[in-house]
Amino acid sequence: MSQQRTIASINEFQQHEPDMLAVINGAPNGADLFIADPFRFLNEHGYAVSPALQAQMERAAPALAKTPKHLYDGIAARRTSLAGDSTLNITWHIRSLGVKL
Q1: What contacts 68, CB < 8 A, 6 or more positions away?
Q2: pLDDT, tens only, 82-101
Q3: Are 34 and 75 a contacting pair, CB within 8 Å?
Q4: Whole-angstrom Cα distance, residue 40 to residue 80?
Q5: pLDDT digits (tens, 9 = 90+) for 43-91
Q6: Are the C-beta atoms of 17 and 7 separated by less than 8 Å?
Q7: Where do the structural domains in the chain lie, given as residue ranges?
Q8: Strand, helix or coil at 48?
């Protein structure tokens, strides 16, 4: 893992977006893991989102608080996938985080 950064503002988040996208798309099952629990994934890969910013983002986009977090460890261990079948060979590619508040 690279050096841990704490992202405390939307501006900082937007500044790091290209690097975060590279990490998401470069990690094994990175997009699936990010979709399952975006804040955990970012934290585990050197981009800690501050609690205040996370709360702000969840208020603006309530779906962020309802991601399938319970699947994260299974996806990481390749026991499951977002599609519910670890044998499916689906590759997600995330092009933008689209964060604008």
Answers
A1: 35, 36, 37, 82
A2: 876 666 666 676 777 876 65
A3: no
A4: 18
A5: 999 999 999 999 999 999 999 989 999 999 999 998 888 876 666 666 6
A6: no
A7: 5-76
A8: strand
| Residue labelled with tokens 């599609």 | 83
Please state, in angstroms and rounded to a whole number, the distance separating the CA atoms of residues 52 and 77: 30
Q: Please give the Cα distance from 92 to 78 (Å, whole number).
A: 15
Q: Fill in the amino acid letter for 10.
A: I
> Which three-class secondary structure state does DSSP give residue 19?
helix
Tell me the whole-structure pTM to 2 decimals: 0.85
Chain position carrying tokens 């309802």: 66
The answer for 50, left when phi > 0, alpha when psi is -120 to 50, beta otherwise, is beta
